[in-house]
Amino acid sequence: MTAPPAAAIEVRRLTYADLPEVVAIERRAFTSAWSLAMFVLELSKPSGICLAAVVERELAGYLICSRYDTVWHIMNVAVDPELRRRGIATALLSHVLERVHQDAQLTLEVRRSNAGAITLYESFGFRSAGVRRRYYQDNGEDAIVMWRTPATLRGTLDDVPGT
Ligand SMILES: CC(C)(COP(=O)(O)OP(=O)(O)OC[C@H]1O[C@@H](n2cnc3c(N)ncnc32)[C@H](O)[C@@H]1OP(=O)(O)O)[C@@H](O)C(=O)NCCC(=O)NCCS
């Protein structure tokens, strides 16, 4: 299949009707996949940002972001394996940043071995600010805790909680 151009990526709100395709991508993307019930719970939260990326009318990726008090937590982002490195996750993250306040604090956990995702997050100003030892139960892997705040955008961790 010829890769579609980046211009063909549409980002819109994720809906319950998308969830069968979301779960199919999720199972291909992660060794410990979220269940359907976990996606339903996140979609039910009125303060969250849940986005779908659509390419040629097919769900190509999704992003789940929850709000906890003043902090936005990127809980899940995944792209169809056949459609990676075409800017789909970039489009999803860009939309999140358009939706939150410019001084917003965002955080996420990522597997230490997931160098591609870490590079992606760094390109948006996220910085590693800590480690949760053996966070992932399937293989005991550490999580890198990343933050994107006004301070990380200036090159420091001054306003990152817990540092
Ligand atoms: C991580 C993931 C969401 C990236 O999605 P994507 O749509 O392919 O990402 P993009 O095309 O927007 O990538 C943007 C940039 O991020 C970096 N990047 C993304 N994936 C990468 C990889 N596998 N290796 C190295 N760099 C990578 C590159 O700098 C890339 O720019 P380039 O393609 O011009 O070099 C996708 O690989 C995925 O679904 N992985 C499985 C699930 C996962 O690990 N999610 C993150 C959990 S924290």
Automatic annotation (TrEMBL):
Return the EC number.
Answer: 2.3.1.266
SUPFAM superfamilies, per this entry?
Acyl-CoA N-acyltransferases (Nat) (SSF55729)
- Which Pfam families does the annotation name? Acetyltransf_1
Q: Which domain of life is it from?
A: Bacteria
Instruction: Identify the GO cellular component terms for this protein.
Output: ribosome
Residue ranges occupied by any N-acetyltransferase domain in the UniProt entry:
9-151
Entries under InterPro entries matching the protein: AcTrfase_RimI/Ard1 (IPR006464), Acyl_CoA_acyltransferase (IPR016181), GNAT_dom (IPR000182), N-term/lysine_N-AcTrnsfr (IPR051556)
Q: Which UniProt keywords apply?
A: Acyltransferase, Ribonucleoprotein, Ribosomal protein, Transferase
* GO MF annotations in UniProt: protein-N-terminal-alanine acetyltransferase activity
Designated name of the protein: Ribosomal protein S18-alanine N-acetyltransferase
